[in-house]
Amino acid sequence: VSSTSFEILGRDGAGRLGRFKTKHGVVQTPTLLPVINPNLNFIPPSEMRKFGAEMLITNSYIIWKRHREQALAEGVHKLIGWDGPLMTDSGTFQMYMYGSVEVQPQEIVAFERDIGVDVGTILDIFSTPDRTHDQARTDLQETLVRARASAQIKGDMALACTVQGGIYPDLRAECAKAYQGMGADFYPIGGVVPIMEQQRYATLVDVIVAAKQNLDPSKPVHLFGAGHPLVFPLAALLGCDFFDSAAYAKYAKDGRMIFPDGTWRLEEITESWCACPVCSKHTPAELKKLPAQERELRLAEHNLWVTFAELKHVREAMRQGTLWELAERRCRAHPTLAEAFKRIVAHSEWIETQEPLSKGSAFFHLSPESSHRPEVRRYRERLLSRFDPKGRDFLLLPEVNKPYSMSYAPLLDRLARLPVVPAVQSAFGPVPLVLDEMYPLAQSDVPATLDKETREDLEAYLGTIETAKGVRVRADLTLEEAERLLTPLETPIDWDLERVRAVADYQFGEGAGDALLAGKVEIQKSRNTGKIRQVFVDGERVLALRAEDGFFVPQAAGAKRLHAAIPAPRLRVVVEQDSVAFNREGKNVFAKFVRSADPALRARDEVLVVDENDTLVAVGQLLLTPHEMGWFKTGMAVSVREGIKG
Ligand SMILES: [Zn+2]
Fold first, then answer.
1. Is 445 one of the catalytic residues?
2. Are strands 444-445 and 473-474 parallel, antiparallel or unpaired?
3. Per-residue pLDDT at 40
4. Torsional sign, CA 20, 26, 32, 34
5. Pairing of strands 551-554, 540-546
6. pLDDT band at 454 (very low <50, low <70, confident <90, very high)
7. What percent of the chain has pLDDT over 70?
8. CB-based contacts of 503: which residues, under 8 Å, 6+ apart?
9. How many Å apart are CA 588 and CA 575, to the nearest integer?
10. Which of 70, 124, 379, 642 has a 20 to 30 Å separation from 359 between CA atoms?
11. Rounded distance between C-alpha atoms, residue 284 and residue 528, angstroms
């Protein structure tokens, strides 16, 4: 059993804000492990904390070759002078650089275990980008044999099993799948340094996604050898939790300074635009005049400050829900990265399954790629599958200030008499007025003039709606013309009822609105904003509004209605019998008690907690994805809002 554990505290895109616990301390992720060369006395490990490093990586093969007896006698922490979490690499990279190593695969893993590292890596086979598919497959099979043997002898050390497969996503997927249940505790994605050196970032994206889709999601994923801040946001967005690199030292040796959007030679720089302690204290001219050794040290320090500042930026963007925007900004720094960003967007069907229902910040439409992001994809898909126009045509209204329904308030009485679905033309697609307060529609910033690609996409989407729903999307009618041409409704639309029904259907699935609203409905609104706050039916409170994102929180009475009307497995998280009594009392659902969950659910969805006989026991908010719940053995799965007594 490994002495490490990993927990997810937040998420954005497919990225995770995590906490990795080891015997030597706790690490917040995503983070970078600075590479320590045990032979060089450069920046001492004991000084690494001040830059923001919480875990280091060193090379067990070099220690095995040069300091074997000492490391075995006193332990690796004492040997290198670091008392925090420590990972070791195994000599794979040396094998790639020099063609061979002297150590046997199991010998090095036993050595890593015996010198007390927290995370030790197998001696895998590094497939370079020029390996053919057959060659990379043969490499991979040998890596798997070694991983299996290493898992037998890892002891309580966390074992890092490296995902190989060269440039071939199918082999990366095969490798990741083979690791499931093998006893690995940590997953480096290996063999990517030459891919990055060749600036094949789109390939890098495919390789990461193929691995991520098939790995056990309860374990951290490490992008081996990625140390330039330029790749952190994009790799973190795809779910990489760890990076490592010697870049800070190598670049410094070469007179180069790392910045979040590129690398510059000290010689090219007149004014440093960096605010780190080094750049605050020394001008570039002063740095240039320093003795070579001291200059190298100062540049390495600058590189570390910048590297860890960008990691803080990534983590903070995740907390705020703006990692997509950060990744896009960074990817605009270089054409090959811009291509990589397009490739990320091409994987948005998978990323959508990881993306939470809502986030804390506004959605920014920044480029043609924005309209392919998971948030837009989800909205368009749900409008098709969960919104019922009841046979009425959409009447497209020009975009106005948000909230749309507020801007159109003076026309609502007239619109209520028309047999149409009034919907505002937006970059997301038509937004029915009754859906305008939900995330991301209300919380978005879109340029006044949309680019050609987005306009063409929207045009195609309107066609899809017409085909799927058998109604027309009328952009050709004004309100006045519609009033002249169409027969008015006998009973005008009740906008509040219509809104509750439409949002409930969008959130919980078609039919949810009718089930929740059957009976005598009373709607309570905020005096300040005029927005719906609570919904009572037959005297019972069934829904309360989640003010931050415009979705509903079902109350016990609402949960009972949803449970009765919507068949299993929809909206359900099924828990084991051992958990039932606790959840009925309002206590949270822990991941290890979850049997199964509706795969259509998303993190932050409001869910029904049921036992194995589909008896309702609680209602609460989902914190993990349905896929993750099958894997996590620790941590919370559902934050229970209300227990339901039998
Ligand atoms: Zn600096």
1. no
2. unpaired
3. 81
4. negative
5. antiparallel
6. very high
7. 100
8. 434, 435, 437, 438, 513, 550, 551, 552
9. 11
10. 642
11. 56
User: How far is ligand 1, taken at its centre, from the CA of residue 136, in Å?
Assistant: 41
- CA of residue 302 to ligand 1 center, whole Å: 4
Task: Write down how long the chain is.
Answer: 646
Number of C-beta neighbours around residue 491 at 10 A: 7
* The 594-597 sheet, strands edge to edge: 589-590, 636-643, 616-622, 606-610, 572-575, 594-597
Distance (Å, whole) CA 460 – CA 340: 25
Distance 7 CA to ligand 1 centre (A): 33
Q: Would you say residue 1 has pLDDT above 80?
A: no
Compute the distance between CA of residue 276 and CA of residue 268 in angstroms, rounded to an integer: 18
Q: How far is the CA of 328 from the centre of ligand 1 (A)?
A: 23
| Mean pLDDT estimate for the chain | 96
Catalytic option among 12, 89, 124, 139? 89
Give the distance (Å) from ligand 1 centre to CA of residue 289: 16
Q: What is the pLDDT of residue 101?
A: 83
State residue 564's pLDDT score.
97
**Cis amide linkage into residue 30, ω under 30° from 0:** yes
* 283 Cα: distance to centroid of ligand 1 (angstroms): 10
- Measured CA to CA, the distance from residue 175 to residue 601 in angstroms comes to 28
Does 256 or 99 have the greater pLDDT score? 256
Which residues are close to ligand 1, an ion, with C-beta < 5 A?
274, 276, 278-279, 302
End-to-end CA distance of the chain: 38
pLDDT at 91 over 90: no
C-alpha 299 to ligand 1 mean position (Å):
8
**pLDDT score, position 397:** 96
Range 159-174 average pLDDT: 98
| Ligand 1 center–CA 273 separation, angstroms | 8
Q: Which residues contact 90 (CB under 8 A, 6 or more apart)?
A: 59, 60, 61, 108, 109, 112, 120, 121, 122, 123, 124
